């Protein structure tokens, strides 16, 4: 059985406060975008895990798909499987690619082996794997809060727009991003701000990581500037970076400036 884990962008990200468990309370809008990995699971005599596409840093045994498999195996009699992950979503991008793989893996195994897991139960397994992960079970636009793993539905449809996603050749780890932030209360609710026309978002909808990340990684600032110069109605770094997206009224093939780092255009 095969599935195609897709990524997210953060439309606004407010880091509200530091928690006693070391994490941060945040507020963000997660919006699904259609850049995808491919993930195949087949029943086998013994466990196997292989990858292709973009190289994944770190030890393969730490892959979130294998961590998700171990979690499910504690509670269910899941047989040995062979997993093939073809990686296409940029890593260290703030697009939640690893979390998406884990969540889509859980959905696939639930279906393939008829585990009978509800959406809530699958989200609970995801919460054990990472703050971003639970979003990908339903994979629809939400207002996320707490650690980013509690959700309220929002109505947000960007299908009339065109998105350009640019990945500068810079890696920003999530832990690095959080270690430099100054948490503060949001001045205006993201739930209200997304109701404004996209044309009015720039300067109002912000990413709390940008201040220090853009200062330390000027290439990311450059990408954001060139998206705006190319006519983006709105441009923002996604999550902890380094990917930056621009939302355009017209198709975006014309962004000559960033062509070599353009990883996706669509929505
Ligand atoms: C930056 C975002 O992508 C925004 O959507 C997410 O908050 C990151 O979520 P994630 O990659 O799933 O994060 P995790 O793997 O759970 O955590 C990685 C590290 O990020 C920090 N972290 C993460 C989420 C959060 N709400 N507060 C944090 O402080 C912690 O230091 C943690 O050890
Ligand atoms: N299936 C996977 N795909 C990518 N990275 C994985 C995977 N499993 C584990 N990892 C580890 O997670 C790290 C980065 O994960 P991810 O792609 O979620 O980062 P990100 O794009 O910055 O996402 P986020 O929005 O969560 O910050 C990698 O360095 C890698 O070691």
TrEMBL record:
The record describes the protein's role as: Catalyzes the phosphorylation of the position 2 hydroxy group of 4-diphosphocytidyl-2C-methyl-D-erythritol.
According to the UniProt record, what class of enzyme is this?
transferase
Q: What's an example of a GO molecular-function annotation for this chain? A: 4-(cytidine 5'-diphospho)-2-C-methyl-D-erythritol kinase activity
Q: Which UniProt keywords apply?
A: ATP-binding, Isoprene biosynthesis, Kinase, Nucleotide-binding, Transferase
Gene name, please?
ispE
Q: Which InterPro entries match?
A: GHMP_kinase_C_dom, GHMP_kinase_C_sf, GHMP_kinase_N_dom, IspE, Ribosomal_Su5_D2-typ_SF, Ribsml_uS5_D2-typ_fold_subgr
Gene source species: Pedobacter cryophilus
Q: Which NCBIfam families match?
A: ispE
Q: Which residues form the GHMP kinase N-terminal domain?
A: 63-137
Which reactions fall under this protein's catalytic activity? 4-CDP-2-C-methyl-D-erythritol + ATP = 4-CDP-2-C-methyl-D-erythritol 2-phosphate + ADP + H(+)
> Would you tell me the protein name for this molecule?
4-diphosphocytidyl-2-C-methyl-D-erythritol kinase
Instruction: Give the superkingdom in one word.
Output: Bacteria
| Domain (GHMP kinase C-terminal): residue spans on this chain | 209-254
**What Enzyme Commission number(s) apply to this enzyme?**
2.7.1.148
The answer to keyword Membrane applying to this record is no
What pathway or pathways are given for this protein in its record? Isoprenoid biosynthesis; isopentenyl diphosphate biosynthesis via DXP pathway; isopentenyl diphosphate from 1-deoxy-D-xylulose 5-phosphate: step 3/6
Could you tell me the Gene Ontology terms of the biological process aspect for this record? isopentenyl diphosphate biosynthetic process, methylerythritol 4-phosphate pathway; terpenoid biosynthetic process
Question: Which residues hold ATP?
Answer: 90-100
Q: List the active site.
A: 8, 132
């Amino acid at each position: 059985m095969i599935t195609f884990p897709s990524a997210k962008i953060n439309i606004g990200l407010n880091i509200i406060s530091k928690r006693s468990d070391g994490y941060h309370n945040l507020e963000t809008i997660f919006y699904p975008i259609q850049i995808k990995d491919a993930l195949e699971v087949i029943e086998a005599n013994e466990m196997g895990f292989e990858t292709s596409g973009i190289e994944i840093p770190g030890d393969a045994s730490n892959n979130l798909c294998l961590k998700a498999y171990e979690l499910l195996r504690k509670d269910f009699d899941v047989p040995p499987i062979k997993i093939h992950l073809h990686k296409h979503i940029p890593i260290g991008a703030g697009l939640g690619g690893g979390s998406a793989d884990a969540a889509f893996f859980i959905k696939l195994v639930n279906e393939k082996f008829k585990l009978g897991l509800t959406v809530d139960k699958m989200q609970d397994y995801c919460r054990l794997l990472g703050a971003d992960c639970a979003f990908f079970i339903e994979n629809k636009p939400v207002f996320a809060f707490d650690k980013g793993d509690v959700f309220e539905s929002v109505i947000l449809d960007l299908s009339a727009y065109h998105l350009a996603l640019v990945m500068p050749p810079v890696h920003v780890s999530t832990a690095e991003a959080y270690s430099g932030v100054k948490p503060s209360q949001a001045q205006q609710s993201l739930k209200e701000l997304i109701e404004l026309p996209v044309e009015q978002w720039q300067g109002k909808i912000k990413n709390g990581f940008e201040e220090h990340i853009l200062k330390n990684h000027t290439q990311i600032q450059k990408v954001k500037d060139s998206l705006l110069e190319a006519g983006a109605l709105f441009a923002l770094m996604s999550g902890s970076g380094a990917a930056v997206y621009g939302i355009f009224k017209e198709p975006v093939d014309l962004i000559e400036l960033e062509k070599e780092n353009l990883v996706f255009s669509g929505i």
